[in-house]
User: What shape does this take?
Amino acid sequence: MSDPVVDDFVQLLTPEGERVQHPDFAFGGSDEQVAGYLRDMVLARRFDNEATALQRKGELGLWPPALGQEAAQVGSVNATRLPDHVFPSYREHAVALHLGVDAVEMLTTFRGTAMVPWKSAERGLHIYSFVIGTQTLHAVGYAMGMQRDGLVGNPDPDANGAAIVYFGDGATSQGDVNEAFIFAASYTAPVVFFCQNNQYAISEPIALQSKIPLYRRASGFGFPGIRVDGNDVLAVQAVTSWALQRARQGEGPTLIEAYTYRMGAHTTSDDPTKYRSRDETDRWRARDPISRAQAYLLASGAIDQAWLDSLEAESEQLAVRVREGCVALREPQLEEFFEHVVIDPPEILLEQRDDYLEYEAGFDHPSVPDAEAAHSQSQAQGAF
Amino acid sequence: MPTMTLAKALNAGLRRALEADPKVLLAGEDIGKLGGVFRITEHLQRDFGPDRVIDSPLAESGILGTAIGLGLRGYRPVVEIQFDGFVYPAFDQIISQLSRLHFRSHGALTVPLVVRIPYGGGIGAIEHHSESPEAYFAHTPGLKVVTCSNPLDAYWMIQQAIASDNPVIFFEPKRRYHEKGEVDTEAEPMPLYQSRVVKPGDDLTLITYGPMVRTCVEAALAAGDEGRDIEVVDLRSLAPLDMATVVESVQKTGRAVVVHEAALTLGMGAEIAARLQQECFYALQAPVLRVTGYDIPYPPSRVETAYLPDLDRVLDAVDRSMAY
Assistant: This one.
């Protein structure tokens, strides 16, 4: 495609599925690993499409699709390993799935049955953040902690770790992201800034956020920036591995601009036909991350149609589980949310919860038995 | 028992916290070599090193956001906001992240972070250096908000705040930094979120905190010369409020005046007055009055003595309450 800004990005797999050489970067993994990435991408896309459909049916309040960004997410997360720690924004569904977050559990936030349910420590994955760019500072601080914990620059590379933080092109205009760049540079923090430039911040094109390619901003902050073909899972994995390695060795931060495209809407409440052309979307469809990985693996003989059929069956099983699991998610009760405001709830908060329960108990409607049961249970436990 | 200024007491408390727990870190602008613009962290970088006493780039949101990350990693960061009026760039990190990461994660995450903020006026400063923003934070679920009024409390409360697994906003009355008091560094301190009756009395309760505690005690002593027996309650904790102590006092005296530097409307006095009318309705012999800053941005320093509650304004309110 004729896009001058992509001339200088790192690409190792063409849209047609052909491996190409790059002077600085090579994908060091096997075809078996690539097949694993393809599986990650296919399952993530299926999950994402199911979630979008569930929102259309009214089962989710909102869904931010990751459609088209699978290679950026799968390639980068596959470059991580513990004790690395991952800070997502709110669209990193493929990252979260890869790190073991359950697909149905991920829907709770968007169905409104929970806040953010997964346990960060277990997954090496911080919870989703919804304020744009806010998590970049948390990642830098976390990385500063890893420095102090002796996880950087050890002779044994397996003992080292880094933080990687995901954000979008729109986020690069936020003060917090720029402050994160400054703090990371000043302290040589072991952090990788992984920007998925999907070309739009809701309706606003990247040209409104930046007059120069985003990756070049890094040099102004004093650390390397690099642009990678975000729809090329091999290139993304290779570049992210390099950046993480730099961080773990104590060489400081890197900005990766994964040049990609949001094939879907920003969220399900948005109508992308109002601000971008069908031509543009079609051009990007031809650069699809999944089809190129699949074409490569079929041509190399690493997978065959039977393998793909089996993956399709696995996808279908996931889809069924997501559809059924979504509507079966437990409905929470308000009183549960008086918990975890602070570690030691003050008297006034306990009084408010009890007032609420007493008030609710005065009505003759279906939620009363549940509320009373929860109340008596918590009283029986003597705990809050 | 040593005598020290409130500033030195904070310094000593921070030093003891750094000694007690290697996870305690300090961060902020100019807190290293300079020891902070008020010298609260003087010599701490020298003695604990730049990895534990961190000079930060000049960006408040960055200071808060990275401190949150350090907290998530298991550290206990204590950040200094240089002046009250400079906390607002960090407001989003405090309100949208710090206060509710525990809640957003269903209790899985804790951020044991202390935000130290020198606050209040009376030092002849220029704009943005004399503000009292405590109500914003006390209004926000998930935050503990405390303020010391004397060296003894400064020494202990800062250590208790650092030991807490909750995020704590710690307001320091900057106009009282250089006032001295005895500090018992061995005796068991009172609980952090408990208010203290600093002067007992039977006729009226002055409810106050931070820089206004001394003003109220002086007013109470002056009123004593006129035969009025005034009780003064130092709230110490603004979130949560220790209403048990306040209610017990007002049940006894039947009259209450709340005093703070912050502007009147929706200040701490509003909440206290609401709670008192609810819990002491039959005991009250007069409406709860408030003596506060006016609802204007903090004025130029040449008129700040007229803006700030002082002994005469407090006594005037006492007169009005007693005459009701």
Summary: Chain B has twelve helices and 14 strands. The radius of gyration of chain B is 19 Å.
